[in-house]
């Protein structure tokens, strides 16, 4: 069985872009397909938000260290 790749910010954003394109170009999606895509997009957005928050904290710490505060 293949090992699933660990999610990264970049891979999540690529997946979100695919979902957006699918939603924009597929007016004939069923309600089940639409619901599934929206749920997946929500999970991806949550992951990206957590990643950005973490990165922001890291950057703030680096700046504090540089400024000596």
Features:
0% strand; single chain; 69 residues; mainly alpha
Please tell me about this protein's structure.
The protein is mainly α and 69 residues long. The longest helix is centred in the C-terminal third of the chain and has 37 residues, at 31-67. Helix 1 packs antiparallel against helix 2 (31-67). The N and C termini lie far apart (50 Å). It has helices at 9-25, 31-67. It has 2 helices and no strands.
Write the layout of secondary structure elements.
Blueprint: H1 9-25, H2 31-67
Would you report the number of β strands?
A: 0
- How would you characterize the largest beta sheet? none
Order of helices and strands: HH
Shape, principal axes of CA atoms: rod-shaped
Helix content: over 70%
Structural class: mainly alpha
What is the mean pLDDT? 90
What percentage of amino acids are in beta strands? under 5%
- State the helix count: 2
Radius of gyration: 17 Å
Termini separation: 50 Å
Outline of the structure:
The chain has 69 residues and is an all-alpha fold. Helix content is 78%, strand content 0%.
